[in-house]
Amino acid sequence: MTTVTLDAAGLTKRFGARTAVDDVSFTAHRGEVLGLLGPNGAGKTTTIRLLTTVLTPTAGEFSVDGVPCSQPTEIRRRVGVLAESAGYPGHQTGRDYLRYHARLFGLARRDAETVATRLLTEVGLAERASSRISTYSRGMRQRLGIARALVNDPSVVFLDEPTLGLDPAGQRQVLGIVRDIAAGRGATVVLSTHTLPEVEEVCTTVLILNGGRVLTVGSVADVTRAVAAAPRSARLRVPFESVDRAADALAGVTGLLVRAVDERPDLLTISMTAVGADLNEALRVVLAAGIPVLSFEVEGARLGDAFAAMTTAGTP
Amino acid sequence: MRARWALVAGVLAALAIPAAAAATPDVTFDQDKVAVVLGDKFTLQTRVTNSGRAPTDLLLAHLNVASLTSDVYVDPEDWSSRRTQELGPLAPGESTTLTWDIQAVNAGRFDIYVVVLPNGAASAGHGPLTVSPPAYVRVAGRRTLDAGGALPVVVVVPVLLGLAAGVSRFRLRRGA
Amino acid sequence: MIAAVHERVGAGENATRAREPGWWLVAGQECRDLWVSGRGPVLIFAFSVLLSVITYLTATNQVLNFLEQREAVNLTLQVAVAVGVLVTLVVSADAVSGERERGTLESLLLTPVSRRGIVLGKLAAALSLWFAAFVVAVPYVWVLGRGVSVVVPALALGLGVGTLLALALAALGLLLSTVSSSNKVSLAVSLFLLLALFAPTQLPTGAPQGWIGDVLVRVNPVAAALHYVSAVLVNGRGWTRDLSYLISPVVLVLLAGGVLVAAAPRIVRLHGGVSGS
Fold first, then answer.
1. Cα separations (Å) of C228 from A112, B78, C146, C160, C239?
2. Which residues share a beta bridge with B41?
3. Average confidence (pLDDT) over A214-240
4. Angle of the B147-175 helix axis to the C40-59 helix axis, nearest 10
5. How far apart are CA A251 and CA A229, in angstroms?
6. Would you say residue A163 has pLDDT above 90?
7. Fewer beta carbons under 10 A from the terminal one: N or C of chain A?
8. Is the peptide bond before C208 cis (omega within 30 degrees of 0)?
9. Is the minimum CB–CB distance between A18 and chain C shorter than 8 Å?
10. How many secondary structure helices (H) and strands (E) does chain B include?
11. Any idea where the domains of chain B sit in the sequence?
12. Angle formed by the axes of helices C66-95 and C183-198, nearest 10°
């Protein structure tokens, strides 16, 4: 049984009459990547700030790596955080910035230098270590923020929207780092994000918040399965020049309605119109016609669908 | 009879004259010449003596400073912060010494003198005044401040600091 | 690729612990930010230009006599103290609220450095401006006061009284910065306070005072401190005679500094103002 590194019980935070986090309880284990999902205003950032001692809970308790919330200084030694709205001192270099924070976490000068250099290499900023942060792109600043979150070799790393504003290449880079943090360092990662494919790709566990309350927590597969209805439609992508042939082939399948997508000439939506129709038959027909299938997605079986269903209904 | 009245009048007159002379003290300084440099502090002492045959009234001694050159403005307040001292009645033959702390705040030639005024209930505001002989004070100038002396500091300090600020800005821009 | 656990040199057991306290590290970085890559050199340069203008005008006054030379030194010293304290206040008023708005405060709050350590470090960095201003003022006071035996007393007075005022106003500025809802509010309130404290010192000295006037001077820490400087430097009074005028600056240091240090764990937080928590 892996060690519990994060344990929250009844965490609540009120700002005046508004309850931002309401009775949140969960645990996370070493090496786990916990995806923290929720619509805007669900309480994700507030939850992270509570667990990292930036805010004080109105009620409830938590512990990090066995250290209770009554010892905030010790908790801070054990967590690393990439905040959503993190700012960086533009006049400092990346190396100076990491070195400073390493020293604030108690490292001597020489060790701080070593850690800063190593982390900059690990996040791919070695060549820009001596450049001022004001010259960094957004992706570089996010990677610098991740490096800063690792400077104290934390047991739990909180990443709040780490891929926000990044291009696809940047997102892939950050997700790779996230994977390595959990696998290579054995740390627990709490990843707050809106990008559901990322969660499916990287997270082992998902916690969905809405209105400050926990809707569900569990593995990605369990959460998806819990709300996935029987699929009733699919999206088929074929080469542009084969769309008409595919539509003709599918026209002969009973119980299926095929429509083109105006803004996507290589995409067809296939809907079931009769009980007993089989979406998989559509795939067999297209393949039998010798048409290359670029993708075939059955809707209603993705995490995004589960998320939308839960946060719209309010309960699983 | 007439001779008797003349004798009484003469005795009364003889008694009255010494009483008027006794009310006026003598005032002298301990030194009549002082030579100092601008800014120096020094002390003058005044001896007030009742050389009459009757006691004096309550007295007030006041120090004054007068410039002997017309182009030097003197504010006596600047020379001494305590320029008025009160004295009790002096018996015939009695003396008292007053000490004056003075600082030479102007350069030039000056007379310092003390005026003693009666300050009793009946005599205040009526005189007579007694003025001491002056103490002649020569203050040598020590002009240490001029534009030429200040110019190096006034120019060099901001130039050096401006260069430092400029270098700092330049390095900041270049480092970016 | 993130390095394997056994290859890391992190904040683990084998790492050498830093001996410096947190506030010292914060002060060091804040000073670097201020002096190497910040406003410090420009502020001090502007300060020196101001002092140069005043000193030059004073030095070219041909009828300057001994007493007026003392007054010239007093004027320069008071300008040095006033402006030095002003820039210290401006820097301290930006210290916490500015970091909030730039988004860099959160990363500082996430370190093991205590909230008290953070404010003490920022206070020390703000005070560095005052000491730099004083050092710059030294040659000006020297050139004005040489020959009238007033340089050493003037510098001692300036250092002692100026440091007291700078400490008081820096603590006050930092307190305002910590509790203000925005940086604009913090700077505006601080500057207004500064003007309110300095304005009475510009009233003509011949204005009728009476005991009310004396009380108003004594209660105002800036007016009281500058009055003390003038009394010793220009009026030639002893050091101890008017020492009671320094009571209000000392009280302000103890009050503002005390509240700042005692309440730091509660008021140094991510959001300022009433709603922050």
1. 49, 18, 21, 11, 9
2. B103
3. 77
4. 170
5. 26
6. no
7. N
8. no
9. no
10. 3, 9
11. 24-94+102-140
12. 160
How far apart CA C129 and CA C43 sit, in angstroms, is 9
Radius of gyration (C-alpha) of chain C in whole angstroms: 22
Run of H or E residues at C12: none
Whether residue C11 contacts residue A106, with contact meaning beta carbons closer than 8 Å, is answered with: yes
Secondary structure (3-state) at C38: coil
Q: pLDDT digit string (tens) for B32-50? A: 999 988 888 899 999 999 9
Report CA-CA distances (Å) from B49 to A160, B61, B93, B133: 96, 12, 7, 14
Chain A interface, Cβ < 8 Å to B: 91, 93, 131-132, 134-135
Q: Let me know if residue C275 belongs to a domain.
A: no
First to last CA, chain B: 124
Pairing assessment for the beta strands A79-82 and B41-49 based on DSSP bridges: unpaired
Among the listed residues C143, C145, C236, C65, the one whose alpha carbon sits nearest the alpha carbon of residue B139: C65
CB contact under 8 A, C107 and A83: yes
Chain B residues whose CB is inside 8 A of the A135 CB are 176
Q: Is B142 on the interface with C (CB under 8 A)?
A: yes
Q: For B75, which residue in chain C has the nearest alpha carbon?
A: C67
A contact residues 184-243, partner C, Cβ 8 Å cutoff: 184-186
Distance of CA A232 to the CA centre of its chain: 27
In the beta sheet, which residues pair with residue B115?
A: B62, B131
Closest alpha carbon to A100 in A69, A67, A133, A123:
A133
C207 within a domain of the structure (yes/no): yes
Q: Which domain range does residue C132 map to?
A: 2-267
Bridge partners of B45, per DSSP, are B99
CB–CB contact A73 C110 (8 Å)? no
Task: Tell me the CA distances in angstroms from A37 to A161, A191, A200, A223, one per residue in order.
Answer: 10, 8, 11, 12
Phi/psi of residue A69, nearest 5 degrees = -70, -10
Contact A98, A53 (CB under 8 A): no
- Residue pair C239/C145 in contact (Cβ under 8 Å)? The answer is no
Superfamily name with CATH number, domain B24-94+102-140 = Immunoglobulins (2.60.40.10)
Tens-digit pLDDT profile for chain C (277 aa)? 444 333 344 444 444 555 789 999 999 999 999 998 778 999 999 999 999 998 888 777 655 555 577 888 898 899 999 899 988 999 999 999 999 999 999 999 999 999 999 999 999 999 999 999 999 999 999 988 887 778 898 999 999 999 999 999 999 999 999 999 888 999 999 989 888 888 877 766 555 567 888 888 888 898 899 999 988 888 777 888 889 999 999 999 999 999 999 998 888 888 876 544 4
Q: How many domains does chain C have?
A: 1
Strand ranges in chain C using DSSP code E only, listed in sequence order = none
**Measured CA distances, B144 to B69, B139, C60 (Å):** 21, 15, 12
Q: What is the ipTM of this complex?
A: 0.84
The set of residues, in sequence order, having a beta carbon less than 8 Å from that of A62 and lying 6+ positions away, is A6, A7, A8, A9, A11, A50, A51, A68, A69
**Stretch A178-207: mean pLDDT:** 87
Task: Provide the whole-model pTM.
Answer: 0.74
Question: Going along A230-291, which residue ranges are E strands?
Answer: 233-237, 256-261, 264-272
Closest CA to C90 of C53, C39, C21: C39
